[in-house]
Write a structure and sequence with these properties.
This protein has 207 residues and is an all-alpha fold. It is 71% helix and 0% strand. The model is unreliable at 1-8 (pLDDT under 50).
């Protein structure tokens, strides 16, 4: 359990938040490089350029770091879905995601494709991780549905609830498929991908 999960209503200081983010960024890097199980707290401490003892002040174990990363990425995913809904062309927004995923950087704000696959695999072994991912997926689907059902004059698509339930699932599958493709084929022809996405996305936006 991370500090944020404890029954402690005292907000973290700016310094503590900065330290926590530094740890999570370092852990993300190590999990991508070594995998969840091979990456050690010592690896994370070295990547964060801080002592293991300091890391334990914020996270009691590696599992708590994994859960914190999933929570952090879920929040960012919701922001990206809102940006997708606000975009004049959803295909452009999806292309930006693919480019980000296929060219990972240590400081990237979104989960890169390799880490997405790591968390998905870990969910088959760890019930807590599986529950955290399930909760994140529910939030993402709800966000997609709200956008799809919102009236067109308010920036939405204006779909009925019955249709939006199916389309939100299809959009989730599409985004997850892009993450996998970015990991397996980062040099994919982007023009071909854009054309393929355009065919699918525009159909998903229709009633």
């Amino acid at each position: 359990m991370s500090r944020d999960d404890k029954n402690d209503e005292t907000p973290l200081s700016p310094r503590a938040r900065e330290q926590r983010e530094r740890i999570l960024a370092a852990a993300q890097h190590c999990f991508v490089k070594y995998g969840f199980h091979a990456a050690s707290m010592a690896n994370i401490a070295e990547a964060a350029a801080m002592s293991a003892g300091l890391i334990y002040r914020y996270f009691p174990n590696k599992s708590s770091i994994v859960l914190a990363i999933i929570e952090r990425q879920s929040e960012m995913e919701l922001e990206d879905i809102r940006a997708l809904g606000a975009s004049t062309d959803p295909v452009d927004a999806l292309m930006e995601c693919f480019v980000e995923w296929s060219r990972p950087r240590p400081d990237m704000r979104i989960m890169n494709a390799a880490l997405f696959l790591e968390t998905s695999a870990e969910a088959t072994r760890d019930k807590q991780v599986a529950n955290a991912i399930h909760h994140a997926d529910e939030l993402a689907c709800t966000e997609f549905r709200q956008w799809l059902e919102k009236p067109a004059e308010e920036g939405g698509i204006g779909m009925s609830p019955a249709i939006s339930e199916r389309r939100s699932l299809a959009l989730m599958l599409l985004v997850e498929g892009l993450a996998v493709r970015a990991a397996r084929d980062p040099k994919l022809d982007t023009e071909l991908l854009r054309e393929a996405l355009a065919e699918v996305v525009h159909k998903l936006m229709e009633e």
